[in-house]
Amino acid sequence: MNRFVLGLLGLVLLLAGALAVAIHLDFVPQVDRDASLLPGTALPPAWVLWVVAAAAVVVALLCLRWLAAQIPRRKVVSWRWADEAGATRISTATATAPFAEEITAYPGVRKVEAELTGPHTAPRLALVVRAHGDADLRGIRRRIDDEGLPRLREALGTPDLQAIVEFRMSNSKGDARVR
User: Fold this and answer.
1) Are the C-beta atoms of residues 129 and 149 closer than 8 Å to each other?
2) CA torsion 52→56→57→60, rounded to 10°?
3) How wide is the angle at C-alpha 157 spanned by C-alphas 153 and 163, nearest 5°?
4) Residue 76's pLDDT band (boundaries 50, 70, 90)?
5) pLDDT mean across residues, the chain
6) SS3 for 72?
7) d(C-alpha 71, C-alpha 173), whole Å
């Protein structure tokens, strides 16, 4: 949607610019290039200028908001535990990095992206496993469930850690998704 709207807007602006250049170079005989664009030379009322200025400011702010939304951000989430011995704070990316490296070493796995979400009392793990086209997905999932997840649960002290795994296969024709 975003690319379509931008492409359409770009096409409209390109055509408008081409038409202006064509009129300036007298390629459009129906339009006199020396004629005034608007009839009369009187300035519009002052309120019209204020409305146009306010509309321009609103459009500029909307454009800046849109530009800011295009900047990718990765929110750093950290968990904090406190007890009588002191407080512990850990970033979720730091907690999942060794787990992702371990799964990347499994046969047939190219890359793993792991993200912990939710509070540390009820976390959820989202995994995106990029695998080769001939990889044994059941075997990879079994090893994640039997080896990797129990170690991560023990390390984080969260026996109820739930995991959602998304496999993305790569083949010669391009990437395909398998859930």
Assistant:
1) no
2) 170
3) 30
4) low
5) 84
6) coil
7) 30
